[in-house]
Structure formats: structure tokens, C-alpha cells
Design brief:
Order of helices and strands: HHHHHHH
Number of domains: 2
Largest sheet: none
Structural class: mainly alpha
Distance between the termini: 60 Å
Mean pLDDT: 83
Strand content: under 5%
Helix content: 55-70%
Oligomer: single chain
Low-confidence stretches: 48-52
Radius of gyration: 22 Å
Number of strands: 0
Shape: elongated
Length: 199
């Protein structure tokens, strides 16, 4: 008699256990994140506190400034691009949460596919804006890539974190493509990439 058969060992058992454990861990993480978000939202509603303001950044004389009408007029290009990158990065996070819910908590394959597609588009778009911000800081201020990222990181993070819903993030992102187009026309070297198509 085979000793493996006597012990009741199934070679596929570890794989099944690992998959089950992974699904359970993701479900617990989503539920915990949801509970934390709801608690935070209720606390903010009770306080009646306004959205945190994005800290102001002094303009450096080396910075090229956005000269097109709109929300970013008068800001350094690197800052405006970093803030758009932060908005799209936040969209990626929000779409990821929605995709996980559609995959694990309340299974809906169609919604999962849609959110997964949108989260991939959002992260590609965020990367394009971040690259533009880096190029401006490296070209105009002579910063190394790491220093450029450290310079814009807080601003991009603040721009994204104030957005709590997909709808709010989509609304905030509406002015970003026009900004990037203006950048491509005025500074083709810094804004050399094409924005990914969006659905």
C-alpha cells in the first residue's frame, strides 16, 4: 500500500488551502477597510469639518507656470501635474476597493472587470502625470529623480487623499487632460508621453 495514500494526502490540498486563505484574508481586509472608512466618515460628519486644504507651495523663479485658464492657472507645471497624478492615483485606489468588493464581498464579475479596467487606466494615467512632474523638476531645478519625487510627493498625496468617492475623484480629474494637452503644446520635452485612452 502506498504510504501517501494511507495518510490521506492529496497533492492539491496545499494549493486549495492557500487559495481559500487568500480569499479569506482579502475579504477580512476589505471588511476592515470598509468599517474604518465608515467610522472615519461618521466622525468627519459629526465634526462638520471641511476638506483639508492642500498646502500652498511657493513659486520658485525657475518654475514654468501654467498660463491657461482654469483650476491650475498660475501654478507651477510640476505642481499641477503632480496634483493630477495624485487624483488619478486616488482613483486607482478607489477602483481597486470597488473591484475587490465586486470580486469577494458581493461577487459581480461584470463590475469586477469594469473596475479592474478602470483601475489599470487610472494608474497608467497617474504615472504619466508623475513623470511629467519629475521631468519639470529635473529640468528646471536640476533635481535628481529621487529628489524630484520627494518634492512633489506630499502635494500629490494631499490632492488625492481629500477625495473620498469615485465620483469626487472623477470630477476633480476633469480638468487634468486639458492641463496635460497645454503642457504637451508648450513643453513637449517634459510632457512627452501620450495620455492613455480612458473608457
Amino acid at each position: 500500500m502506498n504510504p501517501v495514500a494511507r495518510c490521506g494526502y492529496n497533492p492539491r490540498m496545499p494549493v486549495k488551502l492557500a487559495k481559500t486563505a487568500l480569499v479569506a484574508a482579502v475579504a477580512v481586509a476589505v471588511i476592515a477597510a470598509s468599517a474604518q472608512a465608515q467610522t472615519s466618515q461618521k466622525r468627519d460628519q459629526r465634526r462638520g469639518s471641511p476638506e483639508p486644504a492642500i498646502p500652498a507651495v511657493p513659486i520658485d523663479k525657475r518654475d514654468s507656470v501654467v498660463a491657461t485658464p482654469g483650476a491650475f492657472n498660475g501654478r507651477p507645471y510640476w505642481l499641477a501635474l503632480a496634483q493630477c497624478g495624485g487624483i488619478y492615483f486616488r482613483l486607482n485606489v478607489l477602483y481597486t476597493d470597488a473591484a475587490v468588493r465586486a470580486r469577494v464581498v458581493k461577487p459581480d464579475p461584470k463590475a469586477n472587470d469594469e473596475y479592474t479596467k478602470k483601475l489599470n487606466e487610472a494608474i497608467k494615467t497617474a504615472t504619466t502625470y508623475f513623470d511629467g512632474a519629475e521631468h519639470f523638476l529635473m529640468t528646471e531645478r536640476g533635481l535628481e529623480r529621487t529628489d524630484a519625487v520627494l518634492t512633489y510627493d506630499g502635494q500629490s498625496r494631499a490632492a488625492g487623499e481629500r477625495l473620498k468617492t469615485i465620483e469626487a475623484a472623477v470630477a476633480a480629474a476633469k480638468t487634468c487632460p486639458a492641463l496635460y494637452q497645454a503642457c504637451r503644446e508648450a513643453f513637449a520635452k517634459q510632457c512627452s508621453e501620450l495620455l492613455p485612452p480612458t473608457s
